[in-house]
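Usage example:
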Amino acid sequence: MVIAELIDTVWATRKSEQLNGLKFMLAEIKGGTNEGERLVVCDVIGAGIGDRVLVTTGSSARRMLEDDLIPVDAAVIGIIDESCESV
Amino acid sequence: MVIAELIDTVWATRKSEQLNGLKFMLAEIKGGTNEGERLVVCDVIGAGIGDRVLVTTGSSARRMLEDDLIPVDAAVIGIIDESCESV
Amino acid sequence: MVIAELIDTVWATRKSEQLNGLKFMLAEIKGGTNEGERLVVCDVIGAGIGDRVLVTTGSSARRMLEDDLIPVDAAVIGIIDESCESV
Amino acid sequence: MVIAELIDTVWATRKSEQLNGLKFMLAEIKGGTNEGERLVVCDVIGAGIGDRVLVTTGSSARRMLEDDLIPVDAAVIGIIDESCESV
Amino acid sequence: MVIAELIDTVWATRKSEQLNGLKFMLAEIKGGTNEGERLVVCDVIGAGIGDRVLVTTGSSARRMLEDDLIPVDAAVIGIIDESCESV
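Running the assembly step on the lines above writes:
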């Protein structure tokens, strides 16, 4: 997984029907040499802009949505506690 | 997912029969430290050159085509709204 | 796999129910040109901060947890012996 | 997918029996910030040195070989037309 | 696949039971802009330190071991012939 900060919501009116109802957010990786890399993640646990989140990628993102047919490759699996300072 | 801009159509007359009828486009990643990385994506939702799109990669691309036997690893899943300025 | 050093524990109180009871740790890749890249890994073999570990990524991480439904994409599969000096 | 130029044939006399009869070629990514990255690809459509090809990676490479048991992670899926100038 | 040189053996006494009996080696990618990147690979064809090998990654590594439950993500699939000079 990677640690990323959610920096914006992504809107796509024209999209696959399989994605209806899903929330997409722009995330930026924090820490380490890949800091600043951006990806778009799917969120189903109620994360918001400014949150530092744990993001899973690849086929595991579909496991997070509990539907193996949805074509997403990155999803928020947890919101990192504010008390976690080093991450 | 990554955000990319579609910059050209890719033509390959000699190709796998499984790919007949599919449209391939050259895309360039926008934003973040991986900006400028290029990949070729499959599009089935009618995106065009100049559009900023949401691209899914890996096995999820086959989910977008709803056919697990097609050998593609990147597909457009949505066209980002023009009003989305920060992405 | 990659070799990484565990540098901290990651706490996420709000997370997917599927992750309850799992331990997440921040890891930093050691050696080679990707040194310093960070990822968050799941550990089920009792590794601790300061350990150099072997990390598997992607769908194989779910094999390590022996549960294909858990949405993780990186897991510790072994702790590298201290006598292994070059790695 | 990525666009790559085939630059050499790769010979491996000692290899997995599952790979017998398959042709492996060294490819170099063209265009974008990942230009110059090299990978070895499997070819079953008759591509040759100097061709610019479309390469699929990951589990989709096994779909190209139509055999999910062959341990390859990159395969040529098409030869890009010479008239495609910008790619 | 990538071409890598095997540079050391990796020992991990504390590891997943599923890995018992497997040999792990430290490998360094050769050639192209990703030269010098390191990964740990599983070898079942008898490769040794100093060999240049073909490495498959991701779910295909499990195909090389012919056991989809083993949590590895990189495996040697062939030893490159010494006469292959450009790779």
